[in-house]
Design brief:
Strand content: 5-15%
Number of domains: 1
CATH topology: Rossmann fold
Number of strands: 7
CATH superfamily: Phosphoglycerate mutase-like
Largest sheet: 5 strands, mixed
Radius of gyration: 17 Å
Shape: globular
């Protein structure tokens, strides 16, 4: 059961990191906001959360703990799955600390398939003002890749792998997913559609997700956009 997802999306860079942004990974070099979505850049230690971002992660952890207590969910039944990017890894560490869960223990798992969507080399380190161009392409054809990047359907494919792994390893657990804006909104899009799917394969999760991978579903992922640090129940 995937219960809550958390988005901590990015930080400013001013040679060293400075503060967290509300929507994108941002660079404060010359006041230019940029996208950083490649594995190579995303995993660099210099892109961990800055003080404001840490504060947001702490608040998210406290909010999550409150939800767990209200629902009488024991901490031993909680799992944290997170993207390997430095900003999400740092977020997961802060949240685990707020929950008093060992980040190095078996309750925390890094999943490469939760990484940021790669928008392609032509967008990497470019202004985040390019986002609307990508989303317009998604709405027109979610199976079309930005040049050298991932389409919505590509992201669904790897998120399905992550979901199957979480479902198989963490039955009966409440799973906190720490990822990025596009992957999480795409994740919720397919989960909602798969949950409502009625058909011969409705008992098989992967088949249900495959069945709802149609343009009319995938093109609407922006309807599930999250704010930075937002906690949201997805199933």
């Amino acid at each position: 059961m995937l219960r809550i997802s958390i988005r901590i999306e990015g930080v400013f860079i001013e040679q060293a990191f400075s503060s967290i942004s509300p929507d994108d990974f941002q660079s404060k070099l010359s006041q230019v906001y940029v996208l950083i979505a490649s594995r190579e850049n995303g995993k660099l230690e210099q892109y961990k959360l800055a003080p404001e971002g840490i504060k947001q992660a702490e608040l998210a952890g406290e909010s999550f703990l409150k939800v767990l207590k209200e629902d009488n969910i024991p901490l031993e039944n909680v799992r944290i799955c997170y993207s390997p990017f430095s900003r999400t890894t740092h977020t997961a560490q802060v949240v685990a600390s707020a929950l008093d869960i060992s980040f190095e223990g078996p309750q925390c798992l890094v999943l490469d398939d939760l990484r940021e969507r790669f928008f392609g080399p032509s967008y990497e380190l470019k202004s985040h003002d390019k986002y609307p161009d990508i989303w317009a392409l998604d709405e027109k054809d979610p199976f079309m890749q930005p040049e050298g990047g991932e389409s919505v359907a590509d992201v669904v494919s790897r998120l399905t792998n992550a979901l199957i792994k979480m479902e198989s390893q963490f039955q009966g657990c409440t799973v906190l997913v720490v990822s990025h804006g596009d992957p999480l909104q795409i994740f919720q899009t397919i989960l909602n559609a798969a949950k409502d799917f009625k058909g011969s394969c409705e008992n098989d999760l992967a088949s249900r997700i495959q069945a709802v991978q149609i343009p009319s579903v995938l093109s609407q992922h922006r309807n599930f956009a999250l704010q930075t640090g937002e906690l949201r129940s997805v199933v």
